[in-house]
Specification:
The complex is a heterodimer of chains A (about 250) and B (about 300).
Chain A lengths: L2 H19 L5 H4 L16 H31 L7 H13 L2 H12 L3 H26 L2 H9 L4 H31 L12 H9 L3 H32 L5
Chain B lengths: L1 E10 L2 E11 L4 E5 L6 H8 L7 E6 L2 E2 L5 H6 L1 E5 L10 H5 L1 H5 L4 H14 L4 H4 L9 H13 L5 E5 L7 H18 L2 E6 L2 H7 L2 E6 L2 E6 L1 H6 L4 H7 L4 H7 L3 H4 L10 E2 L5 H11 L3 E4 L8 E4 H7 L4
Parallel strand pairs in B: 3-8, 3-9, 6-7, 7-8, 11-12
Antiparallel strand pairs in B: 1-2, 1-4, 4-5, 9-10, 12-13
Helix pairs in contact in B: 7-8
The chains are: A mainly alpha (about 250), B alpha/beta (about 300).
Chain lengths: ~250, ~300
């Protein structure tokens, strides 16, 4: 990444950290958005704690989605699992089309309020991009390459680990990145069922008609999403280059 | 020796390979020729069990290949395919080292073997070892594919249309390289192609397949002079039979003692087809074929070549 591209990201990161660590410092910026002397900065909970809880939720859900979606993608591209492809696709598609809010509504009575229903919603919602990318990544590995691996005497697992997954990795990781970003945004709705997260700030703003709260909650979520997406892209490039997949 | 015994592969109701029996001599270069759908690739892939036969068996040096686990068997048999199938995320050296690595060779031995093979295929190790496949030309990729197939020093090398993706000029060179490699390592090569020209150029023995059945299996001369059926003679083609026959003989074998004063020289290894072409081009009646060390050159005349090209 060139310095031209890096500079705005560094600035964004510094601003974000500063805001999370010392939000009161930014009070004058948000004050014009409030009326009737409402507080310009959310103080019911530490913004830093909320951000950390928010990301924990996203990380847990996305790791879960990734494990399940990649495993499914691998399974249905094996000869023995090919017949499960339509079924898996249907399940994963339903997961994506079913609105996360509806998942929350269904899950909360079953598993109680808090983190659990939010995790379920994010997990289900995050499956599709990873599954579809894993599938197309694995299917794109050239038949001649797989045939050569077989011909060289690699077993099924060796072929998968040494040849197919590394070659499909760029696409799989792209799916994971996509799911992560979607989850960072979607996790805000978790606050409707009392999951700790940045959605709390936005909802407090909506309830008390405080635009400053809504904006600061939204900004923190948005900036985190962008920065994490970029960081994952950069990390991915390093890993893939080291493994020879991308140069 | 590779023995195919009543080998059959059936998909649904169709016999893709039907009751094929043949013996492949150790150290020979055997070419299986057929059009697409003739079952030739399936036949080849049953030797290393990429395809399991429906009936019949394959013996290598008397041992049934079904007695070994597939991957273990395949590590002992070289396999090179059209479009090379090199692993794009691995360097040339890593690609070549595939089977030795699977076999757990020590690192130093692998490195030495990779260098040896690169040199044998006229690729400078210093220049090529660390390159990735997409940085190579088509011809270089093909050679690395062959090097990878030969890496663990297999006695048998199976090749499925290995030259199919190469343009004509590189192809002839690649064919000659493989032939030279075969002599050097004394490998038994079983090669599948649709190209009769290639079969005649490379094969010590040629097997013709059609509709899953073995139509004829014999030396190139056999096929040319005694085709087993109409299909074989049609496949070989009648228009240039004489030239094909000439291409199977060398100048060394055809030369006679005689006056060679003032004649242009021709290499003893040159085939008579090329020798004839050269004579026509130069408008000469005869050429001089240099003898073995210490013996005088001998004479190869146009009349002699024409006589040898006569069929029946």
């Amino acid at each position: 990444m060139s310095t031209m591209a890096l500079a705005p990201r560094v600035v964004a990161l510094v601003l974000l950290l500063a805001f999370l660590l010392a939000p009161q410092f930014f009070a004058p910026v948000f004050a014009p958005l409030t009326h009737n002397g409402a507080p310009p900065i959310y103080t019911q909970a530490s913004l830093l704690d909320l951000a950390i809880a928010h990301l924990e939720l996203v990380a847990l859900a996305t790791v879960g989605s990734a494990v399940v979606a990649i495993a499914l993608g691998v399974l249905v591209t094996r000869r023995a699992g090919a017949e499960f492809l339509p079924l898996s696709r249907a399940i994963v598609n339903i997961g994506q089309t079913f609105p996360p809010v509806a998942v929350l509504a269904v899950a909360a009575p079953l598993v109680g309020f808090g983190q659990a229903p939010t995790l379920i919603a994010l997990f289900v919602y995050g499956l599709l991009p990873i599954f579809e990318n894993t599938l197309s990544g694995l299917q794109q590995v050239s038949a001649a390459v797989v045939e050569s691996a077989k011909g060289a005497g690699m077993g099924g697992l060796q072929r998968l680990v040494k040849i197919e997954l590394p070659l499909a990795a760029p696409q799989i990781l792209e799916g994971v990145r996509l799911s992560t970003v979607i989850a960072i945004g979607t996790a805000t709705i978790g606050s409707t069922v009392a999951a700790k997260g940045l959605g709390e700030v936005i909802i407090a703003g909506l309830l008390s008609d405080n635009t400053a709260f809504i904006l600061q909650g939204g900004l923190v979520v948005g900036v985190m999403a962008v920065l994490i997406y970029d960081a994952m892209t950069a990390l991915e490039r390093i890993v893939l280059r080291r493994r020879g997949v991308r140069r | 020796m590779i023995e195919l015994e009543n080998l059959t592969k059936r998909y649904g109701d169709v016999d893709v390979v039907s009751d094929v029996s043949m013996q492949i001599q150790p150290g020979s270069f055997t070419v299986v020729v057929g059009q697409s759908g003739s079952g030739k690739s399936t036949l080849l892939r049953m030797v290393n069990r990429l395809v399991e036969p429906t009936a019949g068996r394959v013996l290598i040096d008397g041992r049934d290949v079904a007695s070994l686990p597939g991957p273990t068997l395949r590590r002992g048999i070289g396999y090179a395919i059209q479009g090379h199938g090199l692993f794009p995320h691995r360097t040339v050296a890593q690609n070549i080292a595939t089977v030795p690595t699977l076999l757990g060779w020590p690192k130093a031995k692998i490195r030495a073997r990779v260098a040896e093979l690169l040199e044998a295929l006229q690729l400078d190790p210093g220049q090529f070892a660390a390159k990735y496949p997409d940085e190579l030309s088509g011809g270089e990729q093909q050679r690395v594919g062959v090097a990878r197939a030969l890496a663990a020093g297999p006695n048998i090398l199976l090749m499925d249309e290995p030259f199919g993706a190469l343009d004509p000029i590189i192809r002839v060179k690649a064919q000659d390289d493989v032939k030279a490699i075969q002599r050097r390592f004394e490998t038994t090569i079983l090669l599948v192609t649709h190209d009769m020209e290639e079969a005649f150029h490379l094969g010590d023995a040629i097997a013709v397949m059609s509709g899953g059945k073995l139509q004829q299996y014999g030396s190139p001369e056999d096929l040319l002079l005694r085709p087993a059926n109409d299909y074989v003679s049609r496949l070989i083609g009648s228009s240039d039979r004489a030239l094909r026959a000439l291409s199977l003989k060398t100048a060394r074998d055809a030369a006679e003692s005689g006056d060679t004063d003032g004649l242009f020289p021709i290499a003893p290894d040159a085939n008579l087809r090329d020798a004839l072409a050269e004579l026509i081009w130069r408008g000469a009646d005869a050429a001089a074929v240099s003898g073995e060390a210490g013996t005088p050159p001998r004479r190869l005349s146009l009349r002699r070549i024409l006589a040898l090209g006569r069929g029946a």
